[in-house]
């Protein structure tokens, strides 16, 4: 691979970007002038989790250290040593099942990490596969950067950030995903980083950014990260870096079973191990040597110079105790105290695009994704057209005899029950949208309301298309009641019912993120609503407990059935030719006697109830994701208030066993 020129500092915009000097100064003013950065310290940091057997189990045990501006701190250790938990603790992302104690200070102060001041890159790549690299960064820039900046300035910052991460050659390539080839794994990691550094955060957390990449891709990802360090504090957990990647680190925090084995300059770690009788063999990767020495998963004895081979557990204890009595440990204590005494600025939350701008950008981005993702709506559209042709051919030209009464009822039931039921087919695509939302919302890119508005507005045109085109085919071929108004009502009920089912599945996705379990749960809920809707068992025959009260009145199918029945039967006359008496029956009589429709109100009331149900379902979805958002913020607030009493309790915790 060719080397990537990433020499341009992140806050400098050279004249070759095409910006005039006045524009350059304006952008710098909006993004914030370059400061001395953020210093992060943690002292006696403990994290425990509750267990059924032993009460509480220590994951992190008394960690002390620091991270300074313009430096890259690497957190290394075997699997299950607590690397991700450590990053989550520093970033305020621990869940409520954990308990944290100790001091985490930013520039010597206890303060929250506000939007724009920090960014967190998780191990999982949650990106919209249908977008190109350029589109993904452009949309992210429009969401994150403030409205005080013009659109052209946002585009220039996006393009500059793409170049800084070496993605200029892949700008017009789609990201790709399952079944669609796109950019490489290393490029996806760099793209994820690119979208998080648009606001020029002063503190950057990276959770295993090289996981799953080969050595060459890992090097280019980490070299790109290293070149972003100017004025920025970077903390990255990394599993097993190559020698080239290891040379990029300034400082190294080596963990084993939640304890610090070594903290200090990365270049001095080799001497520390050699001093304790575990020298790194010639021509061997230092990181391989470190991890092999402190990994007790395989319970192999380690050779310690002339002392022979000793168990790994004893090696770890020896190194931990040696570190605590070493000059490196005292230097860390001195650095932490010095940084806290120096203090620094209080980080302030930066502004981003306003509510209207974010709603429009999310609507546009979601529309593009829905248009390009064949599984979102287009496959459903093709399936609906085929089913509509089938319905129209089976129930072709129904007429007005006695048999047509049942056939009209069957067709209405199929449309309301099964054509809306098939809306669950878009659930996997929406789950992917939810993953992107959860990442971007957690990082403060936008709020819950804008996401709900954007998703709702972008889906309306596609659902209208699916409702009106297949609906027209089935309606005209079957010979339903003439009149444009009757058809419009039929299509509107179908459209609203589909929107309700989508809203139902959105609620399921917010609670059950696994798409297989979500489809089962959503299908089960719909099945109960169909059974209690008043068609497969007439309302008077439904058992009163549960099925009629409350399920019958809660099921949106009740109002869809009755609205469509009224729309189809009111005003029509039917001939009872079953026994040759040729008695004429009115549609109103059929509605009362055969379908037990509630004739006290019109079909428009049924449609209004359906629309109200749709709004209610969307509001419930908003409430669920808003509650989740509040829980996350409450979690961050609770982890920032640290208790000395908790510290004393956790100090007595037993040594943690490796987590897997």
TrEMBL record:
PROSITE patterns in the record: ABC_TRANSPORTER_1, ABC_TRANSPORTER_2
Cited InterPro entries: AAA+_ATPase, ABC2_TM, ABC_transporter-like_ATP-bd, ABC_transporter-like_CS, ABCG_dom, P-loop_NTPase, Plant_ABCG
Gene Ontology CC, one term: plasma membrane
GO MF terms held by the record: ABC-type transporter activity; ATP binding; ATP hydrolysis activity; transmembrane transporter activity
Subcellular location: Membrane
Membrane topology: Multi-pass membrane protein
UniProt keyword list: ATP-binding, Membrane, Nucleotide-binding, Transmembrane, Transmembrane helix, Transport
GO biological process: transmembrane transport
UniProt superkingdom: Eukaryota
Predominant localisation class: membrane
Gene3D superfamilies to which the protein is assigned, alphabetical: P-loop containing nucleotide triphosphate hydrolases (3.40.50.300)
Annotated family: Belongs to the ABC transporter superfamily. ABCG family. Eye pigment precursor importer (TC 3.A.1.204) subfamily.
Alphabetized PANTHER family for the sequence: ABC TRANSPORTER G FAMILY MEMBER 11 (PTHR48042), ABC TRANSPORTER G FAMILY MEMBER 11-LIKE ISOFORM X1 (PTHR48042:SF33)
This protein's name: ABC transporter G family member 1 isoform X1
Source organism of this protein record: Nicotiana tabacum (Common tobacco)
């Amino acid at each position: 691979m060719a080397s990537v020129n990433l020499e341009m500092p992140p806050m400098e915009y050279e004249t070759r970007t095409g910006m005039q000097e006045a524009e350059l100064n304006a952008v710098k003013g909006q993004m914030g002038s370059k400061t001395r950065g953020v210093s992060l310290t943690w002292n006696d940091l403990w994290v425990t989790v509750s267990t059924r057997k032993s009460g509480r189990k220590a994951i992190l045990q008394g960690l002390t250290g620091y991270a300074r501006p313009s430096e890259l701190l690497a957190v290394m250790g075997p699997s299950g040593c607590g690397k991700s938990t450590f990053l989550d603790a520093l970033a305020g992302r621990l869940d409520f099942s954990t308990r944290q104690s100790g001091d985490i200070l930013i520039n010597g102060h206890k303060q929250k990490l506000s939007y724009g001041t920090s960014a967190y890159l998780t191990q999982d790549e949650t990106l919209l596969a249908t977008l190109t690299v350029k589109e993904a960064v452009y949309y992210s820039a429009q969401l994150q950067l403030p409205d005080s900046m013009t659109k052209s300035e946002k585009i220039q910052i996006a393009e500059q950030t793409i170049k800084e991460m070496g993605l200029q050659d892949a700008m017009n390539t789609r990201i790709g995903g399952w079944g669609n080839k796109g950019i490489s794994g290393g490029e996806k990691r760099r793209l994820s980083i690119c979208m998080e550094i648009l606001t020029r955060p002063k503190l950057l957390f990276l959770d295993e950014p090289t996981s799953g990449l080969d050595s060459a891709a890992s090097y280019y990802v980490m070299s790109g990260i290293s070149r972003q360090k100017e004025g920025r504090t970077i903390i990255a957990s990394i599993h097993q870096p190559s020698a080239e990647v290891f040379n990029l680190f300034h400082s190294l925090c080596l963990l084993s079973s939640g304890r610090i084995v070594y903290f200090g300059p990365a270049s001095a770690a080799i001497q520390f191990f050699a001093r304790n009788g575990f020298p790194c063999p010639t021509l061997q990767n230092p990181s391989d040597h470190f991890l092999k020495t402190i990994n007790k998963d395989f319970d192999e004895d380690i050779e310690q110079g002339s002392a022979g081979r000793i168990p790994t557990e004893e090696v770890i204890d020896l190194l931990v105790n040696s570190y605590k009595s070493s000059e490196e440990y005292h230097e860390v204590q001195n650095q932490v105290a010095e940084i806290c005494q120096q203090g620094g600025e209080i980080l302030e939350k930066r502004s981003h695009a306003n509510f209207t701008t974010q709603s429009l950008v999310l609507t546009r981005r979601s529309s593009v994704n829905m248009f390009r993702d064949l599984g979102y709506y287009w496959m459903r559209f093709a399936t609906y057209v085929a089913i509509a042709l089938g319905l129209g051919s089976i129930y072709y030209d129904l007429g007005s005899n006695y048999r047509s009464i049942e056939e009209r009822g069957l067709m209405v039931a199929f449309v309301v029950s099964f054509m809306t039921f098939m809306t669950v087919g878009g659930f996997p695509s929406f789950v992917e949208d939810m993953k992107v939302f959860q990442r971007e919302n957690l990082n403060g890119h936008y709020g819950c309301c804008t996401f709900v508005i954007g998703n709702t507005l972008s889906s309306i045109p596609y659902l209208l298309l699916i409702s009106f085109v297949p609906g027209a085919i089935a309606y005209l071929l079957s010979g339903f009641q003439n009149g444009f108004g009757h058809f419009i009502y039929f299509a509107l009920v179908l459209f609203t019912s589909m929107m309700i089912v989508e809203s139902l599945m959105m609620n399921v996705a917010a609670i059950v993120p696994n798409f297989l379990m979500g489809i089962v749960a959503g299908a089960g809920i719909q099945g109960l609503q169909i059974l209690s809707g008043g068609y497969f068992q007439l309302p008077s025959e439904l058992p009163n407990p549960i099925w009629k009260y409350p399920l019958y009145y809660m099921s949106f199918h009740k109002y869809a059935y009755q609205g469509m029945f009224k729309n189809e039967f009111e005003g029509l006359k039917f001939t009872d030719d079953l026994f040759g008496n040729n008695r004429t029956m009115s549609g109103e009589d059929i509605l009362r006697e055969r379908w037990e429709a509630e004739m006290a109100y019109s079909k428009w009331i049924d449609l209004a109830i359906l629309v109200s149900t749709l709004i209610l379902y969307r509001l419930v979805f908003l409430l669920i994701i808003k509650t989740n958002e509040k829980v996350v913020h409450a979690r961050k607030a609770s982890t920032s208030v640290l208790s000395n009493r908790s510290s004393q309790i956790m100090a007595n915790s037993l040594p943690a066993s490796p987590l897997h």
